[in-house]
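ok so i was messing around last nite and threw this chain in just to see what happens. nothing serious, just curious
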Amino acid sequence: MSERRGRHKIFIGMAPGVGKTYRMLQEAKNLKKEGIDVVIGLLETHNRQETIVQAEGLEVIHRQSINQGNLTLTEMDTKAIIQRFPQLVLIDELAHTNIPGSLNQKRYQDVEEILIAGINVYSTLNIQHLESLNDLVAKITGVIVRERIPDRLLEEADEIVVIDVTAETLEQRLLDGKIYAPEKIQQSLQNFFQRKNLIALRELALREVANTVEEAEESLSSKQCYLIQERVLVCISTYPNSLRLLRRGARLANYMSVPLYVLFVENPDHFLTKTETLHIETCQQLCREFSGNFLRVKSYNVPTTIAEIAEQEKITQIVIGESQQSRWKQFFKGSFTQKLMKLIWKKQIDLHIIATE
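result:
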C-alpha cells in the first residue's frame, strides 16, 4: 500500500463514440512501451472493433461475479486491482452504477478507493453525466441522465483531456456503424444524436472543462480572498423543483469557487410525509456531493429566517424558486419574494429567482 495518493486523468467527451476509450488505450500502450506497469481494470468496448484491437496486448483484471437471483452478473473487481497494485489502471465509464451487492454503489467510488491505495487511474466520462449539468442536458436533449457523478471529481482530477470531434464527424461515425449496431443507428440520429444536440453538448463540454482548468490555475491566495467575499445560499422546500434549484446554485458557487449553503426552513406545525422526507434527504445528499453545507431550521417565518441565516453566514447570493402563492394570497399578504427582498435589499445580497416548470 502506497503512502501517496494516485493521480487521476479523465478523458471526457460530448457523447458516446467520440473516441475517449480509444485515446485512453492509445496513451496506456505508449506508457507500457516505456516500461510502465499498466492493466485494464474495466473496459467497455461496446463491440467497437477499433477499440477491441487497441486493447490487445494489455493485461486485464478479470471481473468479479455477483449472483442476482437466477442471474450471475459481473462487475469490476476493485479488491483484485488493489491487490495486483499496478502503476496505472484503466477504468471505463466513470459514471456507471454498480450492480447491487458490489463493494460500492457507484464506479467513481471504486476509483476513489484505488486512488487512495496509491494507484494511478485513467478513466472516461461523457459531459452529460456531470451532476450539476443534469437539468441543462435534459433541456437540450430531452433525455434525463440517470447515471451521474459529483462535480468535485472533475475538480479534483490531476489532468483532464477533452476528446473533441465535430458533430458532423460523430454523425458519420454513427452512420459507418462505428458506435452502435446497425439497427440502432436511425433511432439514435432521431433522438440523442440530433445535430443540434451534439453541437450544444460539444460547446458544453469545452466550456465546462475550460472553467475547471481556469479555476485550478488560480493561486491559493487569490482563491482564499474570493472565498471571503462571496457565498451562495440555495433555499429549498418540499417542492420537486428544489433539486433543480440546488444544481443551479451549485453551478453558481462552482463558477465563482465559493462556498455553497443549502437551507430548508421547516414549519414546526407541519409533519413531513414520507415522500417529503425522502425528498429533503435527497437534497441533503446532493448538497454533500457538491461539498456544500446543509442547514435545516424550524420557523414560522420563512423570509425572516432566510434573511437571518444569510446575515449569520455572510451570504452574498441567494437562490430561490418562483413563489408558489396564488395571486389572491399575494395581493392580500404580499408575495414571499417581495418580503425577502425587503429584508435583504440593504445587505448587498443578490437574489436569483429561478423559474419553475
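not much to say yet. The chain has 15 helices and 13 strands.
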